[in-house]
Amino acid sequence: MQIAIDGPASAGKSTVAKIIAHKLNFTYIDTGAMYRASTWIARENNINYGDEKGILAAIDHEQIEFKFKNGQQKIYAGNKDITQEIRTPDISANVSQVSALAGIREKMVSLQRHMAGEMNVVMDGRDIGTTVLPHAAVKIFLVASVHSRAERRMKDFKERGIKTSQSLAEIEHDIAERDYKDSHRQLSPLKKAEDATEIDTTSMTIDQVVETILSEIKKSQKKL
């Protein structure tokens, strides 16, 4: 079974996707982390973020992998755990450019579909329901106000121990800019699939969002 959860930055996709995957004993695939890892690889190898060929070669050399350590999913580039490093403001500011490259998207989508074809998955991103898994049994599109998403990102930085000099207003600006880039890119732009259920998480708790999505999954399972 394939469950697709899409939406803009910091709408709560990863948080609820992890919980739902755990509750259903499905595999969680964080596609955003894969694009962030690609961006990290480019930065670490001093490759221009627009150099598609150079980044692809570096990805082939480094290899992006998900591994489970102490019950938690980690992402690696080569043998290095980069789970924390890919969440820094610098990576956030440049991941849209890298993820918009046709060759990068083609490579990541191929990997994502391969994973989804072998197991029950909960996959989150920006184009899962429209491009990666267009036939997913359940499609969810999460939205939230820019202000609430900025507050979540600030909280996430603190919880992860990521130091940032950015103010809340600056984070809001970055998120709004990311929204524009993601929704206006030519290849697989951020948009709601026609058959997706939209959920506004602005005033909802994580538990409420999870229960709402689980309800949609139960409805789908009854139809199967």
TrEMBL record:
Lineage: Bacteria, Bacillati, Bacillota, Bacilli, Lactobacillales
Broad class of enzyme this protein falls into: transferase
Binding, ATP: G7, P8, A9, S10, A11, G12, K13, S14, T15
Catalytic reaction annotation: CMP + ATP = CDP + ADP; dCMP + ATP = dCDP + ADP
Cellular compartment(s): Cytoplasm
UniProt KW Cytoplasm keyword: yes
Main location: cytoplasm
Protein name: Cytidylate kinase
This enzyme's EC code(s): 2.7.4.25
One Pfam family from the record: Cytidylate_kin
Keyword list, A-Z: ATP-binding, Cytoplasm, Kinase, Nucleotide-binding, Transferase
Similarity annotation: Belongs to the cytidylate kinase family. Type 1 subfamily.
Gene Ontology terms, MF aspect: ATP binding; CMP kinase activity; dCMP kinase activity
GO CC terms, sorted: cytosol
